Amino acid sequence: MNGINGIIKQAAFLIIAFLLMPLALHAAQQEYYTIIAGTYRLQTNAENDYISLQKSIPDAAFLRIEKNSKFYTVRIGRSLEKSGVERFLPQVRRQFKDARLLKVFYKPARIIKMSGSVEGNSAASALAPKDKAKALKAVLPLAAAINNRHEILPRHLKKQVQSETVSISPALTAALAGKQFFSIQLASFANEHRAHKEINNLRGLRFPLPWLRVERVQRFFTVRAGRFNTRQQVRGFMKQHGAGIQGRIMAVYIRPERIVELYEVLNSG
């Protein structure tokens, strides 16, 4: 008798599970409105902006970092109604001008970090893994969101770049060969147009940036400045101009064949 009861209970469980399966699939396939603040190649960049949004919008629900393929995306909100997350958009755009409201699938398996009120519960303890970010010194404060969509610089801007940029002479090319310098890495983009915009913003500073340039490094357009001989010289330059310029100090080889745009060739070292 007990064996028959056990079989009946197991059959009932399977029937209930079968009936609930469409609901589970529907939830997994449901699209929600969410705000995308930015997409990044480096996890540290995503974490830096995630922390910034935590501080500036403490009441934001479903603030999270999702890993999709090789990229990290910072998103805010999860609502079936557009109005549920739209109210946060102006606040996000104060920090990230390219932030946009989209309808996406909500996939918890992709979430590597999350905070904010989630249906009355703290998501940080439920979903967030152990925080692996020991320091954010490598973050590029001036970098905007890295977009993995490559855009070619418009023709009229290419003409402008050609008229305003300078070239490296053969003699200087020979002097640079094989010699390591220190530069300030300011931003990195997969989009050439964005790199050009960042250059224009930096050229608007009250002081000239020596060796301000865009370099093509693999698939990315990297904005760098300076050709210093020592790390101390870079620190002195950055300290002199205070908050006007921030970035990561890097030891680099200046390779003319990689340079897409070059401005202000001054002896900074």
Automatic annotation (TrEMBL):
GO molecular function per UniProt: peptidoglycan binding
Stored Gene3D superfamilies: Sporulation related repeat (3.30.70.1070)
SPOR domain location: 27-108, 176-256
InterPro entries xrefs: SPOR-like_dom (IPR007730), SPOR-like_sf (IPR036680)
UniProt protein name: SPOR domain-containing protein
Species of the source: hydrothermal vent metagenome
